[in-house]
Amino acid sequence: MTKLAVSPRIDAAVASRAMLDHPFYQAWTEGRLPLDTLRAYARQYFHHVEAFPRAVSAVHSACPDRDGRRMLAENLAEEEGLDAGKQDHATLWMMFACGLGENEDAVRGQALNAETQHLIETFRRLSRTSYASGLGALYAYESQFPAVATAKIDGLIERYGVTDEATLRFFKVHQSADVEHSDVCRALLDRLPEADMAEALAASEELADALWGFLSGVEASASLN
Q1: Is 2.40.170.20 the CATH classification of the domain at 7-220?
Q2: pLDDT digits (tens, 9 = 90+) for 157-171
Q3: Residue 52: closest CA among 126, 112, 103
Q4: What is the pLDDT of residue 223?
Q5: How far apart, in whole angstroms, are the C-alpha atoms of residue 72 and residue 176?
Q6: Taking the model in full, what pTM does it have?
Q7: Could you tell me which residues come within 8 angstroms of residue 224 by beta carbon, excluding any fewer than 6 positions away?
Q8: Are the C-beta atoms of residues 122 and 53 closer than 8 Å to each other?
């Protein structure tokens, strides 16, 4: 009997709670968020971006085959800016925040709300629970981000007049980088033993819920125009 791929099931689960469908992101795309709200979002989200490579590293170290580790290592190198001439993604996010008028001390010193802390802790826990769990969580995030990045660029340019290349660079990098990263995760997910697929699916749903909750946390303190 042919083994059924798990990635389409994860795609369907994530689509039911896709970040781009969240009212906060829709308000951003429509230009209804004050810049102060975008700045508050940037301060919170930086801490997730900074923590994210550790989740990738945990999945990499748990991967049971050499080819998979090599592909995940390339993902990790991209996140950490280890390739010549590239910047790590936390630095790119800081450039976005500062381009909105923030300063680095304020971003780094931001107290995290409960939803941001939950997102970071959920990613950390799932990435360390098992290889299947970490891979499912990683895919649930990276498979969404190319479309998110494109929508955010369009909203920033068209609704907020943000055209500075450095401010937009985080999103421009992720338009292409996370296509490659999610392709890697998809291929590795579909190699999983059937016994591990349910765990990967459950982790993807939990991570998608945590991402949605993060956006709800930011939205709760937002002023919408």
Answers
A1: no
A2: 999 999 999 999 999
A3: 126
A4: 64
A5: 16
A6: 0.93
A7: 27, 32, 33
A8: no
